[in-house]
Amino acid sequence: MATILALDDVTDAAILIKRILEKKGHDVFAFTEEEDALKFAETHEVDLAILDIKLKKMNGLEVLEDLKKINPSMRAIMLTGYPTLETARKSLKLGASEFCVKPIDKEELEEKVASVLEGS
């Protein structure tokens, strides 16, 4: 299965993503700090990053941009409680494959993760 990095400034959200996707057999590493997630990506092969748009010090788009510099082939799904067309455009331009709207829906997350990892 895949190695997945989950970054959300809300600990419970990061843990929820981890629990949902570990049940599907993925190795999920949850972070609440941007620096910790970026350091992890520098030393581990990450297949998929799931990033909240609203974070503590950076925003999810900035983290995505940095992650893509570390690993250009890494796929990404953006999470947001405030979806806008502008955010969607920027995310896609930076290489995100999908969007999930908060609150996180278990089935939607599982389907989107499966779809992105399959490359469809």
Roughly what percent helix? 40-55%
- Indicate the structural class: alpha/beta
Instruction: Please report the distance between the alpha carbons of the first and last residues.
Output: 16 Å
The total tally of domains equals 1
| Global morphology | globular
Contiguous low-pLDDT stretches (5 residues minimum) are none
Read across the widest sheet, the strand sequence of neighbours is 2-1-3-4-5
CATH topology, what is it called? Rossmann fold
Describe the largest sheet: 5 strands, parallel
Features:
alpha/beta; 120 residues; 5 strands; 5 helices; 46% helix; five-stranded parallel beta sheet; globular; Rossmann fold
What can you tell me about this protein's structure?
The protein has one domain: Response regulator (Rossmann fold). Helix content is 46%, strand content 21%. The protein contains five helices and five strands. It has a five-stranded parallel sheet with strand order 2-1-3-4-5, sandwiched between helices. Helix 3 links the parallel strand 3 and strand 4. Helix 2 packs parallel to helix 3. The two termini are 16 Å apart.
In brief:
The protein is an alpha/beta fold. It is built from five helices and five strands, in the order βαβαβαβαβα.
Question: How do the strands and helices of this protein lay out in sequence?
Answer:
Elements: E1 3-7, H1 11-22, E2 27-31, H2 34-43, E3 48-52, H3 60-70, E4 75-80, H4 85-93, E5 98-101, H5 106-118
Parallel strand pairs: 1-2, 1-3, 3-4, 4-5
